[in-house]
């Protein structure tokens, strides 16, 4: 007797998922059920999301819940996954907050400079991703970025994050200039 599609999806995800790989696009999972029509596949993903085995994090990205990822890293990993084809780096308020230059930052909000288009993406209870377009090339940023393995993203050093804040005309009122000047 053939296995139900939903069960096959869960079995496949259980084999594919790891603590480092728990975010999947519909295309990633499609290979587990190639015989389903497009409409049947979409309905199956909807059922899986209602079942809480998969959480629809945002359009085009699902979180496989049995892996139990670190909730504090989900936004970072989602940003890296959603814009894998673009130059992206943590900057602006997020980088400055992590460096202690800004004391206040909205909870669950990640600001990322991206060679892709500007866009804000709600990721349910995990927060919001804000991508801000930059025309700068990777070669221009050499020596100003550090790779953060936990986040799986590049992170701007405070000097670059401050320059990005000015370049994008962000509000500079929350910056502690005493600390900022020490880091620059």
UniProtKB/TrEMBL annotation:
InterPro entries per record: AbiEi (IPR059220)
Domain of life: Bacteria
UniProt protein name: Transcriptional regulator, AbiEi antitoxin, Type IV TA system
């Amino acid at each position: 007797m053939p296995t139900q599609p939903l069960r096959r999806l869960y079995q496949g995800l259980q084999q594919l998922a790891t603590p480092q790989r728990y975010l999947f696009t519909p295309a990633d999972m499609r290979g587990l059920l190639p015989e389903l029509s497009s409409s049947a596949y979409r309905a199956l993903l909807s059922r899986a999301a209602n079942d809480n085995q998969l959480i629809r994090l945002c359009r085009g990205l699902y979180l496989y819940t049995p892996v139990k990822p670190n909730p504090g890293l989900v936004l970072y990993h989602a940003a890296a996954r959603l814009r894998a084809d673009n130059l992206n780096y943590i900057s602006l308020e997020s980088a400055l907050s992590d460096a202690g230059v800004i004391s206040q930052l909205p909870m669950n909000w990640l600001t990322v400079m991206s060679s892709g288009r500007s866009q804000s993406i709600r990721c349910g209870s995990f927060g919001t991703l804000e991508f801000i377009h930059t025309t700068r090339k990777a070669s221009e940023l050499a020596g100003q970025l550090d790779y953060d393995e936990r986040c799986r993203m590049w992170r701007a050093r405070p000097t670059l994050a401050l320059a990005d804040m000015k370049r994008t005309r962000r509000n500079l009122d929350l910056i502690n200039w005493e600390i900022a000047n020490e880091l620059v």
